[in-house]
Amino acid sequence: MRKEDCFYLGKVVSKYSFKGEVLAKLDTDEPEIYENMESVFVSMGNNLVPFFIDRCRLHKSALLRIDFEDIKDEAAADGILGAELYLPLEMLPPLTGNKFYYHEVIGFTLIDTVHGNIGIITAINDSAAQVLFEAEKDGRQLLIPVDDDIIVKVDREQKTIEVNTPDGLIALYLA
Fold first, then answer.
1. Measured in whole angstroms, how far is the alpha carbon of residue 113 from the centre of its chain?
2. What pLDDT, in 10s, does the model give residues 36-59?
3. What topology does CATH give the domain 3-90?
4. What sign for the dihedral angle of Cα 139, 142, 148, 150?
């Protein structure tokens, strides 16, 4: 399985017991939907390795306590501490309305309520404090905040996102 075909679920953050159980911090608003997983991909170097799960359950709401089939002692658990966990993209729960996954909107057209078509989304930059749409229009790059106050409508059928950008933002790029 390739990372491009998967989504980041979380990270193994600590050992839980001397029997090899670990705690994983999940990157989700709904950790409870991952309580009964049968397997997960663990990032080992540049590879994703499937690990089968005997049992997993929520631990203090945001952590998932995982008992892997092949990890039954502390030494084995040490081997996956800090490892990232992934699941196939098709296991993502569908979103509706103006909620979307970042990978889902790449290629969508941004439509500003004042300026019309302002470009095609080429990437989502989530490395800064403010998440940004990276869009391209006529060879120019635009950076538009991903914010509930700016996003008016997500249309999956038309592959568009309607935005109401702050005054002057689009003029900075297209003037």
1. 28
2. 899 999 999 889 999 999 999 998
3. Elongation Factor Tu (Ef-tu); domain 3 (2.40.30)
4. negative
